[in-house]
Amino acid sequence: MAQTENKHEKKEEAKIVQANDNQTAHQHAHDNKSVSSTEKHKESPKEPKKAQPLRVKKEEAIARGLSLPISKKSSMYICNFIRNKTIDGAMAELQEVIKFKRAIPFRGEIPHRKGKGMMSGRYPIKASKHFINLLKALKGNVIANGMDLDKSRIVICSANFASRPQMKGGARFKRAHITLIAKEIKESKEHKEEKK
Description:
The chain is of the alpha+beta class. It has a domain at 60-188: CATH 3.90.470.10. It has five helices and five strands. It has helices spanning 2-43, 72-82, 87-98, 125-144, 189-195, and strands spanning 60-68, 104-106, 120-122, 152-161, 176-184. The strands form two sheets. It has a three-stranded antiparallel sheet with strand order 1-5-4. The radius of gyration is 38 Å and the shape is elongated. The N and C termini lie far apart (120 Å).
């Protein structure tokens, strides 16, 4: 019996030794793979990064409001009021209109208002709020297009009729399309000399 026990012990020791050899061989193979993969990374030259396309500076920025629920008439007068002004200046003046501190010049048989160069005017609050949102969008577009915010002016401002849905009773809702376009204004040398 002692001989059979010795045989079993020797077989078990042989199995353990063989298992250890397999593990070390597997580890060496894994180490070789990791080394070879790092060597590959080191040997391969770095590919040059793709140059990002240069942003082309655009000449104008556009903001459009489609089918806004405001009167075309008041939109038209606000357009006349903010044309050729800076975006921030126009927003500040429209904020004053909302607070009843400044009137928008209107034409027709409308009550007279105080203000320089104004005969009659109104305070179109709802339309002013929509215009402020459009001016914020225009300001963002000016910055995104790489234009100078201080030099840009609202060059084109137009209000047109949109399709007007019909109310109950045959009347129609108020709807207007608004287009705002800002461009950078370059002051001429003569104009600068006159200021001095």
